[in-house]
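ugh finaly. both done.
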Amino acid sequence: YSSLMTELRDTALTRMIKHAEGSGADAVINVHFDVNVIALGAVEVCSYGTAVKLL
């Protein structure tokens, strides 16, 4: 279970970083992860953060 959670978190973070870079951001701050067990063997991960452009 913990290896699955690590993989899900890493995947979500990688996607967030790629999206921010594609938008011209320099960093992502205030990152949050929400994890919900939907059903036996099914997990949902919602991640969000603020993309910022450094001056």
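ok and the 2nd:
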Amino acid sequence: MTARGSPSRFLQSVLQNGVGRYVCQLKRVSLIFSKHAQNSRAREFVEDKAVDFAKRNPSVVLYVHPEKCSIPKVVAEYLNGSVAEEIVQLLQKMANQSGLDIIRIRKPYHTDNPSIQGQWHPF
């Protein structure tokens, strides 16, 4: 796909993130798995690593739903209302993401008050 065909936007911060203190965009993670499935890796994650993940990310609420389902799933909810369903191995990646779609950035800078004289550079 060409650059003109791919979506692009200007650089922006999520909910003014980075202005002041950092605010983690991931708020809730729901783990839905089967307690009785023989090969449930989600159940193994809950037994072994869920507490460690919760301790490393205190701002993220981790819900565990043991239900009768054949396919375990993860539902992540972000501050901006986006919902992402991913596999358990991507939990740490989701905790570090902002919740925005990955998209080409047109310019590597953004300001709410643009300069009339242009961007400063030493040469």
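summary for the 2nd one i guess: The first strand starts at residue 8 and ends at 9.
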